[in-house]
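Sharing a chain and its predicted structure for anyone who wants a worked example. Both blocks are below, sequence first, tokens second.
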Amino acid sequence: MKKTLILIILLLNQNIMAETENSSYAQLLQKIVTHEGVRWSQFGQEERKLLLDYMNWLATTIPSTLSNSKDQLAFWINAHNACVMKLILNHWPIENAMDIPGFRDQLKCNIGGTEHSLVELESGILRPLFREPRAHFALWWGVRGGPRLLPVPYEGKKIDQLLEERTKHFVTDSNFLRIEEIKSDKKTKNVVKISPLFDWFKYDFGKRQSDFLLFIRKNVDKTLAKKIPTRISDVSFLAFDWTVDNVP
């Protein structure tokens, strides 16, 4: 009985701490994030302190102690995005993320007491543990070629709503899905160009290579869905833009 009570108290304290730290992280996001991108020029001593405090909390928090899988998913998404911010800030000013040696697969952040690269966070934890394809559109890569960073932290109680919103936003953004009409010989042909994220992670959206096309069709309106082909051979993938997500 005592052990059970102690465990409940620990879990409650962990969740209260999570809300407190998310509040600090929320302050940081509100200061530097817009819907058009990140204002890196706004990073001053106070903003760096907020990020450092949050990274320290991530390093000392065991995500498995959070109350449920939705809270844990939100934790890992926030951890990934904060890690991206830390790695870019450590090399700021910079225009292209690929100019940071080891940005994706060698540089690491301490999350839950273990050092993780961005690739490890994505493909070693988030993808296999949660199997949630919509999470791809919440993961901020810090660059123009990937999803935008929200100006608020992800929370377990709102995670489904936010993932749904981010998915629909991504697949209707012309930066990530473009349909061009080409007319020839009195015929009109749709040329569909899609973010390479769907190519790199195609099997997260279904067992078949082309299942990501079905996923897209389900997340756009009926008019646009009719223009999305069913065969992967009928689409092409956009070049990925590694320019750092930065606005004045």
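Comments welcome. The helical segments are 2-32, 45-60, 69-89, 118-130, 159-171, 197-200, 211-218, 222-225.
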